[in-house]
From TrEMBL:
Name of the protein in its database record: Permease
Span of domain GPI inositol-deacylase PGAP1-like alpha/beta: 225-282
PANTHER family linked: SLL1969 PROTEIN (PTHR37946:SF1)
UniProt cross-references to InterPro entries, sorted A to Z: AB_hydrolase_fold, PGAP1-ab_dom-like
Organism: Limnobacter litoralis
Pfam families for this protein: PGAP1
Amino acid sequence: MTNTKPPVNEVGSAIEGGLKLAGDTFEQAASRVHEFHRAISDMPFKAVGTATLSSSKPIESVHNEITDLVYSAVKEVGKGVFNGAAWAVKQANQGLATQNRRPSRRVAAINSAINGLLGDHLSATRNPIEIKTGFYQDGHLLGLEQDELIQAFPDAKSSLVVFVHGLCCNEDSWFLYHKPEALHTVPYGPRLAHHFDVTPLYLRYNTGRSIEANARQFKRILTRLCKNWPVAIDHVILVGHSMGGLVSRALVEMLEPEDLLLQHALKDVVCLGSPHAGAPLARLAAAGEGLLDRFELSKPVSRVLGVRSTGIRDLQGGLGPLMTSDGHRVQFHLIGSTVGKSTGSWLNDTVGDGLVQMSSALADETGTAQRAAFSQKHHMQLLNDPEIYVQLEAVIRQHLKPI
């Protein structure tokens, strides 16, 4: 039986948080419309002002004052309606009994996508739909006290494989493409646990926050987990997909002398399609925002494009090529892919795997990382693929013999 923290009423919390976010979104949309209105009205006023030696200035001031009042009223009333509804839902939610069942995967997926896009805002406003970072099992956040871990993992192993998902995803992404009738599609975690004495764990985190903030929180909870794990830990291997690889790498790079437990336990970091040198789509969004901000009429559109999370902004340049001098003998394994028919395809440095260029996924200036390149695989296929599994198994074999 899994011991997890009692779940809150899932639907109620989702509605409450969604209403709060809708209020914030309404306010932002009204602000962008206001700015667009002002940009349009400024053009004739400037032209008339030049022709009349600014004699139209009083009219312009009255116009601006009225429109400012109208838009402010619209924003406040609209946001107030949404926040009031959220408060009502919260009160009702507190009176509902909770059920110990697996939360809806669809709700969790939508929530993860929202966190990826606006997670820093959700964190700053303490929105109930912000993801609580931690290790999840059957959709529930695991408690990290020793008795809770003993109950959740009665057959705990001394070697852990921790899976860290990418942007806008959660731990369910590691179970994509699984077909019960096809053994080669069994997800990495259960498959590794079947062949080796390892326990798979799954991190869920708010991907809209900065990579550094997520790495620091990951380090704290991983340290706590290792301290309270039912048996002494020999090996910890991190497997990160996309942004998850960067968060895992950042954790290693911020290890300090007092982190003796993690220094001893962490052996390998596997990065699957991680944009170490940045992702082109993130750079394109930044370039588009900068271009639109140069013109008065398109500035409001630029503001809309600018409403993207810190996590997404961090993907513009990534962490740079691997230059880890962590001193803890952590071995990095960089895996990249291309949608092209061969790893020598011209597509490698254009579209790469569809989201990450191969040169970025394999960016290493240390000369120590183990690197592997694959063709005809898109970004999400790296989450569950027979050839990638072979690579993960090879990493495990460095430390353990098959069962």
